[in-house]
């Protein structure tokens, strides 16, 4: 259930008061609006050790090893072969049946000279995949921080609602006690007491509903190992640009989803070149030293060396290579479109959050004016009720209007904070507020 339903329920409580009777009582002063819970944080950096973050880092490390594998195709390969066994022979060339231990050994070196660019393309693709994996890890950090921020915002929003409803209940409780005193003196009716009691019961339900929303919102914080009572850091610490276009440029250049898609596009382009290399010849050199010994008659110990240059040229592959090239081209086009889509999505998110921030600021200003008017109206109703010009119902409704205005102000404040956190998330900088820095690319990947 969203926080809007809480506000609607409070407004519904006002409508339900239409049948209240008149009376008079002295009431407590109007409550102050709830304050936004923000401040210095110290334990949010524990997100860095959450398994979701560690898993993304492990995948990034695995992608980094692919670079070494791709580079190995450009380097010489050396190996040693050895064998030993039992040899037996019987025939005209043997004096008699003879058995003995035979062994052989070989040292081989294979040197790639030309591969049609396959190796270089494989290295470029592996580097791009590594960068993409790093951005995935960064995006996971940003997502975790943003999820946590929204959860904490909702927790504090509902706590503010509970506080507002509690103050309203305290005022109604004071009114009820005054009416009960007047009832004993014959200046009020039982209906007035029942109406106030009915509103107190409704407020109890609304407070429990808000607490239920707190429990639901706390799930994300608890999953990330953060206490739901943790204070929110100030977004102003990031010193984000104030203009919409500047925010869009910052987000497009810094958002990890955009950077990941760009890296995927680079990898897809490199794989196109790698596929085209299958149409080109390969040239390699081979060196080997072989030796062995056999105890059979007529076989002596021997050592031989050999050097060669090998040339391979594909002439007909049955369409396999051409199909592979077309497949890689299609994958490249898809990667480019996905990168464009990521930019469009981030731009739309920034514009939407920017508009939400403007509207939330306007709503906050209007809610502040509404609260001032509601507080003034409550004081006027109280003064008029003392001289018998207003009923108990009028005061109950004025108290509910004040609480409703405070809930609207509370919602507007946290709507503004949520919009600011959305902007911070889309620019890829929200992690800095929570002590979750982005991963750094290693020199081996460049």
UniProtKB/TrEMBL annotation:
Signal peptide: 1-18
Protein location: Cell outer membrane
Recorded GO MF terms: efflux transmembrane transporter activity; porin activity
GO cellular component term, pick one: cell outer membrane
Keyword Calcium: no
Pfam families membership: OEP (PF02321)
InterPro entries: OMP_efflux (IPR003423), TolC-like (IPR051906)
Record carries keyword Signal: yes
Entry protein name: Outer membrane protein
Organism: Aminobacter aganoensis
């Amino acid at each position: 259930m969203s926080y809007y339903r809480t506000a609607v329920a409070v407004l519904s409580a006002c409508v339900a008061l239409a049948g209240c009777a008149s009376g008079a009582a002295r009431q407590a002063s109007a409550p102050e609006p709830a304050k936004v819970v923000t401040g210095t944080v110290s334990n949010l950096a524990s997100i860095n050790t959450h398994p979701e973050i560690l898993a993304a880092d492990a995948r990034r490390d695995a992608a980094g090893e692919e670079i070494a594998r791709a580079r190995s195709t450009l380097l010489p390969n050396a190996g040693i072969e050895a064998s030993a066994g039992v040899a037996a022979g019987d025939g005209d060339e043997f004096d008699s049946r003879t058995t003995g231990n035979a062994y052989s050994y070989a040292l081989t070196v294979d040197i790639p000279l030309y591969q049609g660019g396959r190796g270089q393309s494989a290295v470029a693709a592996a580097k791009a995949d590594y960068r993409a994996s790093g951005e995935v890890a960064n995006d996971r950090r940003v997502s975790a921080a943003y999820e946590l921020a929204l959860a904490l915002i909702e927790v504090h929003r509902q706590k503010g609602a509970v506080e507002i409803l509690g103050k309203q209940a305290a005022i109604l409780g004071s009114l009820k006690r005054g009416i009960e005193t007047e009832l004993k003196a014959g200046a009020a009716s039982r209906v007035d007491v029942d109406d106030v009691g009915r509103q107190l019961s409704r407020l109890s339900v609304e407070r429990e509903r808000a607490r239920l929303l707190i429990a639901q919102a706390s799930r994300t914080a608890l999953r990330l190992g953060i206490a739901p009572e943790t204070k929110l850091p100030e977004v102003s610490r990031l010193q984000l640009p104030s203009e919409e276009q500047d925010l869009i440029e910052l987000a497009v250049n810094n958002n990890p989803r955009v950077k990941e898609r760009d890296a995927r596009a680079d990898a897809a382009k490199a794989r196109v070149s790698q596929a085209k290399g299958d149409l080109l010849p390969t040239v390699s050199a081979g060196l080997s030293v072989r030796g062995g010994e056999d105890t059979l008659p007529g076989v002596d110990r021997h050592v031989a060396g050999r050097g060669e240059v090998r040339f391979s040229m594909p002439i007909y592959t049955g369409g396999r290579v051409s199909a592979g090239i077309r497949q890689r081209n299609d994958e490249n086009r898809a990667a480019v479109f996905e990168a464009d889509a990521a930019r469009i999505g981030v731009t739309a998110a920034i514009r939407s959050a920017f508009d939400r921030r403007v509207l939330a600021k306007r709503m906050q200003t209007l809610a502040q004016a509404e609260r001032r008017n509601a507080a003034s109206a409550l004081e006027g109703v109280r003064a008029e009720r003392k001289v018998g010009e207003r009923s108990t119902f009028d005061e109950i409704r004025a108290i509910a209007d004040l609480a409703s205005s405070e809930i609207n102000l509370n919602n507007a404040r946290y709507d503004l904070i949520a919009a600011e956190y959305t902007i911070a998330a889309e620019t890829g900088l929200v992690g800095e507020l929570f002590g979750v820095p982005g991963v750094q690319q290693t020199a081996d990947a460049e």
